[in-house]
Amino acid sequence: MKKKGIALILACxxxxxxxxxxxxxxxxxxxxxxxxxxxxxxxxxxxxAPAANPSDDEVYEIRIALWDxxxxxxxxALQEAVDKMNELGGGRIDAKVYFSETLLTAVDSLSxxxxxxxDITFWQVDLVAGTTPMASMLTLPFTQAMPTALPLSNAxxxxxxxTPDNPFQKEMADMxxxxxxxxxxxxxxxxxxxxxxxxELNDLAGLKLIGAAEMQGYLALGGGNIVSMPAxxxxxxxxxxxxxxxxxxxxxxxxxxxxxxxxxxxxxxTNGGLHACAVGFVGNLEFWNSLxxxxxxxxxxxxxxxxxxxxxxxxxxxxxLVVSLGEAGQPIYQVAEEDMTxxxxxxxxxxxxxxxxxxxxxxxxxxxxxxxxxMELATAHLNDE
Length: 385
Fold this sequence. Notes:
Blueprint: H1 6-21, E1 60-65, H2 73-88, E2 93-98, H3 109-114, E3 120-124, H4 149-162, H5 167-173, E4 177-184, E5 189-192, E6 208-210, H6 216-220, E7 225-227, H7 234-239, E8 245-248, H8 250-255, E9 264-268, E10 278-284, H9 285-290, H10 293-327, E11 332-335, H11 341-358, H12 367-380
Parallel strand pairs: 1-2, 1-3, 6-7, 6-8, 9-11
Antiparallel strand pairs: 3-10, 4-10, 5-8, 5-9
Helix pairs in contact: 1-2, 1-10, 2-10, 4-12
């Protein structure tokens, strides 16, 4: 299928956002960095970007690991953000991105950063199953109407970066790590190599979908199965019939050219998907605490610029993909929000079981309380622009 100039549009969007918006806004969470100030998730991308304190002439080298290529959208956006970071540092920040696993492999990105092999890494929750069990809560199936990517990301930031003494940061701190920024993707929906709508849970029967391992128990309620694999295997697995489709957000379908093989797509509710994937930047805690507050602020806000640029880029990609799918005759089926009740009920049953099974492993943490807080924040941000 021909792509409709998406790469060019995307590059323009990312460059425009990152160049024009600057890196003003949000300092780090007081809960983890010892020398930071409270952040404001609603004050992002200010034109009055903070500059480094000229009275401190120490140069802070920052090694940032990204396992993907500099050529993909996330890589290009990160390089733009780091260039702006270095500019705002006024000679005091010497940040460099190490792409394509040249510093750390994807599976070692968290453990390697904890050991100090990198100072900051991009991380996807559950990239390595069981690594961050508390954060896995953020990948569970939806149990209610959820906002789209940017407002849902703001809910996550309020939960993880701004709520005092929260277990998501504690989980990282116990590994000598800290969340610097976090966001959510658009909702993950179902894309099949056959023309088949998946309106009801039972429509999953017999389907094998590429997706996150944490969703296996949920899909099993309808007779479906998750097959986890490296991103490099997505296309060939679909092509060879190893799987029937994927549980991915729409932009990912385009980025990995799955639309060349798919025949139909089913989207769900307000968010568009059945769950979302939390990703973000995680830093070595000892290193992060060694940075002055003004350097922390520049680094965090520039990385957030990258994250928000990717949310906008995904939106542009998705809009272009919807057009090209229509031209190719691939139907997009939609389950309206008012018809999501059975999906949410199944999600709630799975979440209840998930919490019950793990409660004993978190003796000092009330998992139900924190899950409910996440849902409350999602509801509060539901109508955000």
